[in-house]
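RETRY 2/3 - previous attempt timed out on the joint model. Re-submitting the same 629-residue input unchanged.
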Amino acid sequence: MRLLGLVIRAQREIVPSSERARRSGVGTVRKRRLLASGLVVAAIVLGAAALGPLVVPYGPVAADPELKLIAPSLSHPLGTDTFGRDILSRVVHGARLDLGIALSVVALALVLGSAIGTLSGFYGGWVDALVMRVTDVLFAFPSFILALAIAAILGNSIPNVIIAIAVAYIPYFVRLTRAEVLAAREMEYADAARTVGNPGWRIMYVHLLPNCLTPALVQATLCLGWAILDVSGLAFLGLGIRPPTPEWGVLVSEGAQNIISGQWWTSLFPGAVIVVAALGFNLIGDGLRDFTAREER
Amino acid sequence: MNAPGAVLDIRDLTLSFATSKGPVTILEGVSLSVGGNEIVGLVGESGSGKTVTALATMGFLPPAARIESGQIDFEGADLLSLDEQSMRAIRGRRIAMVFQSARGALNPLMRIGDQLARVYQIQRAMPQRQAYREAVDMLRRVGIADAERRVRAYPHQISGGMAQRVLLAMMIACSPALLIADEPTTGLDVTIQAQMFDLLKDIQAQTRASVLLITHDLGVVAETCRRIVVMYAGQVMETGDCLSIFAQPRHPYTQHLLSSVMRVDRPVVAPPVGGPPSEALVYAARGCRFAHRCPIAIDVCRREALPRISAGPGHDVMCHRVGEGYGAAAES
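RETRY 2/3 succeeded.
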């Protein structure tokens, strides 16, 4: 029996380390599938945004009163709306707008948030205290409510929507980067950089920030999904982007009035696209988070 | 004591850290000097204040640290009174420091050539291309074969020993007057350690920089340094010529430290004393911090501030008992 135990233990020892990591860890097959499906969805949405408008048969605002509110068919796969506009064409054009806005929001929030977070973590003291209290205040509101308020103040235009949502997301990036910088500035490479005479801004933004970006980048993918929801949510409520612009939230809101009269397709398809796109980016974010958490251990 | 021509002269440095239980005195009355063109070894066990002394010199003290008294004179200026702006002008150009973990001291996301070249760009305002050429030359000088190819490597792609060479290259790039080496071979295997110390000696001889070598390895000190400073729990115990201290250690702590080195030609002489310094003693107001482990301690050791007793030319012992004449003749 004892011998058997030894053999089993020996066999356990010779299992290759990659195999052991795969068996034991967070990076299970299921998680990887979720990450992969997120990537596929994102690729489809991005592809539709990039190439779709060249492929779809109708213009986004090309109305044909003869063909209003027809059900999904071969010539109009997702049907048409009250003005006889092709819903598929509008959804595909909307992908470009929604993704463009979402990407701008996240880029703006990531750049500003990580820059402020680095500053706050590096200098500490009253700078840090001030930044942290401001983020506390921003965190006190749900990000959508905050974006709603800012958008209402700024007025309806695409840049204003981007600013409004980005401001609501900045605190997340500030916190994440600050926490990383707090740890990284104690690392010897930070001291070494100071030793050879690097000025403070250089240590912060050349040495520390690039080493502290991983959590913020993961957050950025998650935020892409949220941003799509928030942009279309604002538009649905009539803030930011207005009809007849082919934006997903606008499409849902325009179609909503037809649901009771039986034309379910006008709202359902744009709504489904919002859900799928947001879900896709969320899956990527979740997958990356597990992946990087394991890498950093 | 104020050594003439000293590059670095630390005088009576007392430093405390703020903790939740009140201030804790980390260094008490530390004095040491490093002369021009010499290697001074700073030895002591972990927690004896070696690294804090180095950090104070670099101006890298954590925010919790408070200087109670003392001066750190470097090239005629008191470093403790300089602001960050002036310190930056001194760091890298006049004082540099090699850190314990070389790999940790290199930015993991930057090619080693870029990191090294940047030192020239910052300190000498060299154009990038020229800085890069200098970097390759410097890598060759610290014994990195194939330097042209290695400059493009990232820190994780090179070995620990090579990382230490790269770090050394970064630190001597601007030929500083003083190089502080804080246990520069931690985590390297023994043959590489020997190579590193040989390299350090070579570089020192070439650049004529002064070196403050922090280590707990007495063998290294014996081979590398001309003078040594022995620290215990934040106090300097004994300082002097390497030869005279190794031949005739006067302080009971130094005696125990030396006898703890295993040698093939003799049995272990002194029985081990006590454990590490206790937490309570850092709150103690005055007196010798080694007293609670010292086999010959008497009451006065625990009460009175340390005296500085001369035990020969350039050889000072901070011990009450030595002052009374203990050990003067008893040494073999």
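The interface with chain B takes residues 124, 187-189, 191-199, 202, 207, 210-211 of chain A (CB under 8 Å). Closing ticket.
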